[in-house]
């Protein structure tokens, strides 16, 4: 608890995190570079899916991050509402676009993979459908947090929405699974085999680490920008009102 | 407490009655939206019967949406929401009263109009009672979920469009099980599971949604 209060001062948070930015950026590029090299050039092609299995190294970690970002958004929303932590609102607002882009990346690469594998760009598969709904939830959050003239109002309203959405995500997931099994038999090729060979696991893990570092990197930059924008706004108001 | 609660419900009902046409407009929208479908997909009875349950449910979702924007907005704009918030009734109870009034003025008319539309779409007669039952169990959940969205958009720009963006994804579970109940009944399968889940969603939403909506109203009045 004392920890949380210690970091509640935005300036202290910024002086602590600003030096991390170049390090996070460098590590992100390193792990993404290594992961992409291993995944695109070193890992073997799949005996069934051929070269297109390589989309997996971009796709699967993006789907993980889509879920991870929504969870951290909901946690920041709860912290912001319960302890009125000023940085929690900023963190939630900064996370949403990153999560939305990861969700979009997962959908787009999944669609690209589906064309050669399933013969169609889009299948109303349970996972794809719940990902699409998750994307809509992100869009709703961003639209709501930008819909108010007073940014703090927007942050509070969006935080409530994030929590309501977070409770709903498992319900939506469950109902989409039910709906899917009713409407079409599960005929799609499943990625989750019994085990995955280390030559494929390593690039996957590196990409996941790279994505997570990228998220932290962008998160700090965006939070920094948001806090600075708030200061500029306050200074302008002081000048106007004397 | 009960007396104040019923006073609140009656106040909203009387307001709806004075503005008489509003509630009728929602039903008209429901009917017209459904009637558009035969023009879109063709008048073939087989196809219409196949999609009837889904079309009626989607139209019911959209009609519910249409009237939700004004759930708290009119009271917010003329200041009576602040007075209501100051009254001894807690905000959660106020939200619940408003939701009940909303359901009585939109959900209930939709349920009454639905069988007529089912006839127009050539739906199998086995599905009629199930459709009514599923709507009766599902539309209160829609009003409850919608109240959260209606509370969150208070004081925002472009409230109506925003509301649909926030709330429609949350409506999907109700839609899935509502349609599935009707389709199962027509196909001759058991419908108990769908009704149990619809009931579960309602029981789940009943305490949580007024709570979240009251939180939304509170921060809009700060």
How would you describe this protein?
The complex is a heterodimer of chains A (242) and B (222). Chain A has one domain: Four Helix Bundle (Hemerythrin (Met), subunit A) (Up-down Bundle), CATH 1.20.120. Chain A has eight helices and no strands. Chain A has helices at 2-6, 10-17, 20-42, 55-83, 86-118, 126-145, 151-183, 198-241. In chain A, α4 (55-83) crosses α7 and α5 runs parallel beside α7 (151-183). Chain B is mainly alpha-helical and 222 residues long. Chain B has one domain (2-221). Chain B contains nine helices and no strands. Chain B has helices at 2-18, 21-41, 45-68, 70-77, 80-86, 91-120, 128-152, 159-187, 192-221. The longest helix of chain B has 30 residues, at 91-120. The model of chain B has no long low-confidence stretch (mean pLDDT 91). The A-B interface holds A 81, 133, 136-137, 139-140, 143-144, 147-149, 153-154, 156-157, 160-161, 163-165, 167-168, 171-172, 174-176, 178-179, 182 and B 148, 152-153, 155-159, 162, 165-166, 168-170, 172-173, 176-177, 180, 183, 197, 201, 208, 212, 215-216, 219-220, 222.
Please write out the topology.
The complex is a heterodimer of chains A (242) and B (222).
Chain A: H1 2-6, H2 10-17, H3 20-42, H4 55-83, H5 86-118, H6 126-145, H7 151-183, H8 198-241
Chain B: H1 2-18, H2 21-41, H3 45-68, H4 70-77, H5 80-86, H6 91-120, H7 128-152, H8 159-187, H9 192-221
Helix pairs in contact in B: 1-6, 2-3, 2-6, 3-6, 3-7, 3-8, 6-7, 6-9, 7-8, 7-9, 8-9
């Amino acid at each position: 608890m004392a920890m949380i209060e210690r970091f509640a001062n935005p300036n202290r948070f910024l002086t602590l995190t600003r030096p991390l930015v170049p390090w996070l950026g460098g590590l992100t590029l390193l792990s993404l570079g290594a992961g992409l090299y291993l995944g695109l050039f070193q890992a073997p092609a799949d005996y069934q899916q051929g070269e297109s299995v390589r989309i997996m190294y971009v796709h699967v970690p993006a789907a993980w991050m889509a879920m991870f970002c929504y969870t951290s958004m909901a946690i920041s929303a709860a912290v912001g509402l319960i302890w009125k932590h000023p940085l929690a609102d900023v963190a939630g607002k900064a996370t949403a676009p990153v999560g939305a882009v990861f969700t979009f990346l997962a959908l787009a690469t999944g669609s690209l993979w589906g064309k050669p594998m399933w013969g169609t760009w889009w299948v109303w598969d349970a996972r794809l459908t719940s990902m699409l709904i998750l994307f809509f939830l992100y869009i709703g959050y961003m639209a709501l947090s930008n819909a108010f003239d007073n940014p703090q109002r927007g942050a509070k309203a969006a935080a409530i929405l994030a929590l309501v959405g977070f409770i709903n995500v498992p319900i939506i997931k469950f109902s989409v699974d039910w709906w899917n099994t009713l409407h079409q038999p599960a005929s799609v090729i499943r990625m989750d085999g019994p085990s995955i060979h280390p030559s494929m696991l390593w690039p996957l893990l590196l990409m996941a680490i790279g994505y997570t570092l990228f998220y932290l990197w962008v998160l700090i930059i965006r939070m920094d920008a948001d806090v600075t924008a708030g200061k500029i706004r306050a200074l302008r108001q002081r000048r106007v009102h004397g | 407490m009960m007396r104040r609660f019923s006073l609140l419900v009656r106040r909203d009902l009387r307001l709806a009655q004075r503005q008489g046409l509003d509630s009728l407009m929602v039903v008209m929208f429901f009917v017209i939206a459904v009637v558009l479908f035969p023009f879109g997909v063709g008048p073939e009875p087989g196809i219409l019967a196949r999609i009837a349950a889904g079309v009626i449910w989607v139209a019911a979702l959209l009609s519910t949406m249409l009237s939700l924007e004004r759930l708290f907005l009119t009271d917010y704009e003329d200041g009576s929401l602040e007075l209501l918030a100051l009254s001894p009734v807690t905000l959660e109870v106020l939200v619940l009263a408003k939701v009940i009034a909303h359901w009585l003025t939109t959900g209930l008319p939709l349920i009454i109009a639905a069988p007529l539309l089912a006839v127009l779409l050539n739906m199998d007669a086995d599905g009629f009672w199930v459709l009514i039952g599923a709507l009766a169990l599902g539309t209160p959940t829609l009003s409850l979920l919608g109240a959260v969205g209606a509370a969150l958009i208070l004081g925002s720009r472009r409230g109506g469009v925003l509301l649909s963006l926030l709330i429609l994804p949350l409506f999907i579970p109700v839609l899935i099980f509502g349609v599935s109940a009707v389709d199962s009944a027509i196909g001759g399968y058991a419908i108990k599971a769908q009704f149990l889940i619809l009931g579960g969603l309602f029981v789940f939403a009943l305490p949580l949604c007024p709570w979240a909506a009251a939180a939304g109203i509170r921060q809009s009045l700060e």
